[in-house]
């Protein structure tokens, strides 16, 4: 089912919702709602970034490509954020790939219009710079987590991040996709997910994941999830990071 486009008075993207009404009204005519599907690529590494995207529903994986064709996920962007941060920081290219991981609605703005908006809307620039700091913390913590914590802890952290960005307890997910996101072989993810299911934390099948015990997942996760969430709260006043 398509997610309805939000109105000017109630944007679903939390960055846009935090803007003063006059700045949001100035931006709104330039924001085009689009529907995106799983595996749709929004940013290609080292190619010009022509648009930015503010997710309203669904989420986007930021992937670091490797020479062997694999990719490592370094961050997630949902309704708390924006895809296209290099444009904010003065570059029109990224070393990362932005790929849709859960279908939904995004608000798209052209690069030129976005640059003008940064000049005309001081609150937007300030808010996006704080979001950039929060996202940088997410990326840094992901690197530390992947290098130091057990697979089951990392899986719990990732499922919590996905649950934060989902519209309910159920969202599409396969073991193959999880393995790619966590940079591990699929059998390892299968074992960890089975243990979580046996413990009553999740239920999965036919490409769908259901979180059945949120508190249990939080207990199973390492400190990295709470650390990033706290950082988002400090910088943006949101509990989803």
Structural class: alpha+beta
Specify the biggest β-sheet: 4 strands, antiparallel
Whole-angstrom Rg: 18 Å
The ordered H/E elements are HHEEEEEHEEHHHEHHEEHH
The best one-word shape is globular
Tell me the strand order in the biggest sheet.
2-6-4-5
Précis, in short:
With 241 residues, the protein is an alpha+beta fold.
What's the arrangement of secondary structure elements?
Blueprint: H1 14-17, H2 21-27, E1 32-36, E2 41-43, E3 51-55, E4 59-65, E5 71-77, H3 85-88, E6 97-102, E7 104-110, H4 111-120, H5 122-148, H6 151-165, E8 170-172, H7 175-182, H8 186-198, E9 202-205, E10 208-211, H9 214-220, H10 223-236
Antiparallel strand pairs: 1-7, 2-6, 3-7, 4-5, 4-6, 8-10, 9-10
Helix pairs in contact: 5-10, 6-9, 7-8
General description of the model:
The protein has 241 residues and is α+β, with helices and mostly antiparallel strands. Helix content is 45%, strand content 21%. The protein has a four-stranded antiparallel beta sheet with strand order 2-6-4-5. It has a three-stranded antiparallel beta sheet with strand order 1-7-3. The protein has a three-stranded antiparallel beta sheet with strand order 8-10-9. It is globular and about 55 Å long.
List its traits.
241 residues, single chain, globular, alpha+beta, three-stranded antiparallel beta sheet, 45% helix
């Amino acid at each position: 089912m398509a997610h309805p486009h939000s109105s000017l008075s109630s944007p679903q993207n939390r960055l846009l919702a935090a803007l003063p009404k006059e700045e949001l009204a100035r931006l709104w005519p330039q924001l085009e709602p689009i529907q995106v599907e799983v595996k749709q690529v929004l940013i290609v590494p080292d190619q010009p970034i022509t648009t930015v995207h503010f997710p309203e529903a669904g989420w986007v994986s930021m992937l670091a490509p490797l020479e062997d064709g694999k990719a490592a996920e370094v961050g997630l962007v949902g309704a708390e954020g924006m895809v296209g941060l290099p444009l904010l920081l003065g570059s029109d290219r990224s070393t990362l790939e932005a790929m849709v991981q859960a279908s939904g609605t995004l608000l798209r703005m052209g690069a030129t219009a976005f640059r003008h908006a940064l000049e005309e809307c001081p609150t937007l620039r300030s808010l996006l710079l704080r979001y950039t700091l929060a996202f940088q913390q997410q990326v840094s913590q992901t690197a530390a987590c992947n290098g130091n914590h057990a697979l089951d802890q990392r899986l719990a952290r990732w499922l919590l991040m996905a649950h934060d960005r989902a519209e309910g307890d159920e969202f599409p997910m396969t073991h193959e996709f999880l393995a790619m996101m966590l940079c591990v072989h699929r059998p390892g993810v299968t074992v960890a997910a089975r243990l979580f299911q046996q413990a009553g934390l999740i239920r999965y099948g036919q490409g769908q994941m259901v979180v059945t015990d949120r508190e249990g997942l939080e207990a199973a996760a390492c400190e990295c999830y709470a650390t990033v969430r706290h950082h988002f709260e400090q910088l943006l006043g949101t509990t989803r990071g």
